[in-house]
Design a protein that fits this description.
There is one protein chain. By secondary structure, the protein is an all-alpha fold. It is 64% helix and 0% strand. It has 14 helices and no strands. The radius of gyration is 20 Å and the shape is globular.
């Protein structure tokens, strides 16, 4: 699989707006070489017409959110990962290795190598987090945005602890993405050990009744079910299974603690 076929094969809305501009800069000078070899450029479609990959958005896009494709999610993930990794002013090798390994697990070695090549170009740029997140919020469905947030916490925790700068950056990203504080705390609790983590994951207080615990579990199991991101492909469904498993474990912990079935 060539680099151009990888980057163009499963990307939809991320061809446009600030994300499209970041992709273009990351690819840089060898784009012209791809064109000389007869490979379609980023802005070309199957119609053969060249389109502007950096800023176009139709009225229809504003009215109806297009379906996020695997490549859209992948590029969004790379950009936000670079923001989090640089949050504390340095790039820890363990965090970089985590990104590479996660992409290997999701996409296989070849696609992961292409992604990391793009990632290196992205990390060299000054990125407007607000602009990027605004585009993602407008174009990406809520379950996919939750999956992005889960991955970002994994990156920050890869070196064994999450710094205040990293936490502040992830919190800011979460707000820009339109993720509620309860959802933020739920996903955050999946990466920390505390006496009330199980309740935070289910987005409830310790004072609630057993029936409310059961209702919360059903609600969260539905919210984090892997099928909610099925349109992103099998690789992202497998990633979503981790959140789903932690919801189940949180519920089982509360069941054991309270002694109900």
């Amino acid at each position: 699989m060539s680099f151009a076929k990888w980057i163009g094969g499963a990307i939809g809305w991320s061809f446009g707006g600030p994300i499209g501009a970041i992709i273009g800069l990351a690819i840089g000078s060898f784009v012209d070489n791809l064109a000389d070899n007869g490979t379609p450029l980023l802005g070309e479609r199957q119609t053969g017409k060249r389109q502007n990959p950096y800023g176009q958005r139709t009225t229809q896009t504003r009215r109806q959110r297009p379906q996020t494709q695997s490549g859209d999610f992948e590029v969004s993930l790379l950009i936000l990962a670079s923001v989090v990794i640089k949050a504390d002013g340095k790039q820890d090798q363990r965090e970089l290795d985590f990104v590479r390994q996660q992409f290997r697990n999701m996409y296989g070695a070849e696609r992961a190598n292409h992604a990391f090549k793009l990632f290196k170009g992205i990390t060299k740029q000054n990125i407007s987090t607000h602009k990027v997140c605004t585009q993602i919020r407008q174009m990406m469905d809520h379950p996919s945005r939750l999956q992005l947030l889960h991955f970002l916490f994994g990156i920050a925790k890869a070196d064994g602890h999450v710094t205040e700068d990293e936490m502040r950056q992830i919190y800011t990203i979460s707000g820009y993405l339109g993720i509620s504080n309860k959802d933020f705390e739920s996903i955050k609790a999946m990466f920390y050990n505390s006496s009330d983590n199980a309740y935070k994951i289910l987005e409830i207080d310790k004072s609630v009744s057993d029936d409310e615990v059961k209702r919360a579990y059903r609600k969260m199991a539905k919210k984090y079910h892997p099928d909610r991101v099925g349109h992103l492909g099998k690789e992202h469904q497998e990633g979503a299974e981790e959140k789903f498993r932690q919801v189940q474990e949180a519920y089982e912990h509360i069941q054991k603690e309270r002694g109900f079935k």
